[in-house]
Backbone:
């Protein structure tokens, strides 16, 4: 789950990491009020959870309070990559001498957290790594021993700092680590961490991604996610609320299956035969009729869907139960779009009989079913 | 034979009194897996399908000398359960539980490495050595004993491919799921090493997916070590967009990293045959139509 910039900065500030002084506004008068308490010039930043906000015109600079008000008005009436801007963050503009990068994320291969630093910042860390790999410093964190001030100072030295600056930078990095651990961050970064003309460090931008699996101990953010204020689309949110895994894609074949790998392979097979999947949806194990109904509801709420492909491999799940579920769901949701169903596994004969009697065509092979649904989607 | 589990396994089930734990205990017993005891804190003294239940792993091990544990404990408490098994010197643990926080998994894996234990999962369907031992939730009837080792990051996709191998009279030595999370215990290379040493295993099926660079590292290993057994692979997620988690917490393309094409290219250049569709795996093993 992505946090807004203002949330991330507020958390950093709470841990004593220097951030620009600022405030959050959801309307123009609020924006002006905040600006009156700050020293100009100002930066007004749209609070949206999409990447490339700056390039899309979501960050504006202003010299005076009326100008800041206008900037806020412009941003609050804007959509960035289709997402309406609901709030803006107004802060004092910092005088940047140099942009750095500090972050902590997961190293999957080494099964640990990794601290990443670079004396070059301001662009994506992957980009920095591609352009100047020698500038990127990585340090694997021992899970039992943690990341200490001295680790951070060693990194600061490698970044070219000494004396008081090395000590300050070390403290900031250590604090960043504690924020990351306390908030179950999958990724936490200050990019850029600005070095000002007077040699201080300030987090000019900050990003925190909370591990979705840890939201049970981050209730404040879980609440916000489920209330709809997040990067999720309408369908993705509905799926999250029902513990279904859904991803919106840009095709016209709605897909429902059980198991993440199987559903991915189903999408790939559709694409292999020249079709375009509209979504990924994994109903998981033991798909009850209620779950299938919810899944159908979500997939069909996407108006681009022309045909449906349900791919169930009944392992321990019984195919006859799934078949009854599909029928009940069909009745409840009122499916009118053509459906192709592939149903194999335990009690598949009974499952097939139930669906065939209801006039639904059932296939045994995933490839055959994929070809069939692609054909229908092109009619 | 096979790897990691065989008929000498004596297991305990942690979280045995839950719906999943109880249901799958029954199926594992039916398959012939030896399950000595179950553990659920607060439920000690009861029985599930004839298996005695204890409050702690320590208490269970005072009565039985188990060497494996399968864990069905809910995500917020699963890492605690796994550490309990590890501290009580259980050598092999299989974590079925999905949605364990990354931070918990990181701590757990560091401890497992220190005590040199084998961890399968989290978020795995488990492991099966057909006709010898099943410690997992997979449907048993789609497997049959034979010479093909299978290792995968997915559950149902493994069933899909295993069923197609069995239909084509290709039996399996051992099949296991590494788990769909970003942090897992065993990885492909660990399992390939074990399959290489196992006389029953003649060839290997590797089922990967988008996210991370495990498949690329495995390709490097196969090429560098001149891996002696034929490997056939399938990679799921060719059509997945970047930045989206495809069901599994670990199945996500970050920027340009973790995409399917890279993995497929890496494996092909290491001499691995890569199937375009799940049903092509049997054909590429060279034993079927």
Residues:
């Amino acid at each position: 789950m992505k946090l807004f910039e203002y949330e991330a900065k507020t958390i950093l500030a709470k841990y004593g990491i220097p951030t620009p002084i600022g405030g959050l506004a959801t309307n123009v008068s609020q924006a002006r009020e905040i600006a009156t308490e700050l020293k100009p010039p100002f930066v007004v930043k749209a609070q949206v959870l999409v990447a490339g906000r700056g390039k899309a015109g979501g960050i504006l600079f202003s010299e005076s309070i009326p100008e800041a008000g206008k900037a806020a008005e412009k941003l609050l009436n804007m959509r960035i990559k289709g997402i309406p801007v609901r709030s803006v963050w107004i802060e004092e503009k910092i005088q940047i001498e140099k942009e750095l990068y500090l972050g902590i994320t997961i190293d999957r291969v080494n099964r640990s957290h990794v601290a990443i630093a670079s004396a070059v910042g301001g662009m994506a860390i992957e980009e920095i790594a591609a352009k100047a790999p020698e500038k990127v410093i990585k340090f694997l964190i021992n899970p039992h021993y943690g990341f200490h001030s001295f680790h951070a100072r060693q990194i600061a030295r490698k970044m070219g700092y000494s004396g008081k600056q090395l000590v300050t930078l070390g403290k900031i990095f250590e604090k960043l680590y504690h924020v990351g651990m306390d908030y179950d961050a999958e990724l936490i970064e200050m990019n850029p961490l600005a070095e000002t003309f007077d040699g201080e460090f300030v987090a000019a931008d900050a990003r925190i991604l909370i591990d979705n699996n840890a939201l049970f101990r981050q209730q404040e953010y879980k609440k916000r996610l489920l209330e709809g204020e997040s990067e999720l689309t309408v369908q993705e949110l509905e799926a999250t609320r029902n513990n279904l895994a859904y991803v919106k894609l840009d095709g016209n074949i709605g897909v429902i299956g059980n198991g993440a790998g199987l559903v991915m392979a189903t999408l790939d097979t559709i694409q292999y035969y020249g079709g375009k999947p509209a979504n990924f949806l994994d109903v998981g194990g033991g798909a009850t009729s209620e779950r299938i109904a919810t899944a159908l509801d979500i997939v069909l709420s996407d108006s681009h869907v022309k045909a449906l492909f349900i791919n169930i491999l009944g392992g321990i799940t019984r195919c006859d139960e799934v078949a009854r579920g599909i029928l009940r769901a069909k009745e409840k949701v009122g499916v009118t779009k053509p459906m192709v169903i592939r149903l194999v596994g335990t009690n598949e004969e009974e499952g097939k009989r139930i669906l065939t009697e209801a006039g639904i065509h059932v296939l045994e092979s995933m490839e055959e079913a994929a070809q069939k649904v692609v054909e229908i989607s092109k009619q | 034979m096979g790897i990691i589990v065989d008929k000498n396994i004596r297991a305990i089930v942690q979280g045995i009194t839950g719906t999943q734990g109880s249901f799958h205990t029954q199926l594992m017993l039916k398959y012939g897996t030896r399950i000595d005891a179950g553990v659920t804190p607060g439920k000690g003294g009861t029985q599930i399908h004839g298996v005695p239940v204890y409050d702690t792993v320590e208490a269970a091990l005072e009565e039985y000398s188990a060497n494996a544990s399968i864990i069905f404990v809910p995500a917020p408490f699963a890492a605690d359960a796994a550490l309990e098994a590890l501290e009580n010197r259980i050598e092999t643990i299989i974590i079925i539980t999905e949605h364990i926080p990354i931070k918990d998994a990181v701590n757990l894996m560091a401890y497992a490495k220190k005590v040199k234990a084998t961890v399968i999962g989290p978020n795995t369907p488990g492991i099966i050595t057909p006709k010898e031992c099943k410690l997992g939730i997979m449907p048993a009837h789609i497997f049959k004993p034979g010479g093909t080792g299978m290792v995968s990051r997915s559950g149902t996709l493994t069933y899909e491919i295993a069923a197609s191998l069995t239909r084509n009279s290709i039996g399996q030595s051992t099949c296991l799921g590494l788990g769909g999370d970003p942090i897992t215990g065993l990885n492909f290379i660990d399992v390939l090493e074990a399959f290489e040493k196992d006389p029953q295993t003649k060839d290997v099926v590797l089922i990967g997916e988008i996210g991370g660079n495990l498949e690329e590292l495995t390709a490097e290993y196969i090429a560098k070590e001149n891996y002696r057994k034929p490997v056939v692979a399938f990679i799921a997620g060719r059509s997945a967009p970047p930045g989206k988690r495809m069901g599994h917490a670990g199945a996500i393309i970050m920027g340009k990293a973790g995409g399917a094409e890279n993995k497929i290219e890496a494996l092909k250049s290491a001499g691995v045959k890569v199937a375009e569709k799940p049903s092509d795996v049997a054909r590429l093993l060279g034993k079927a139509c």
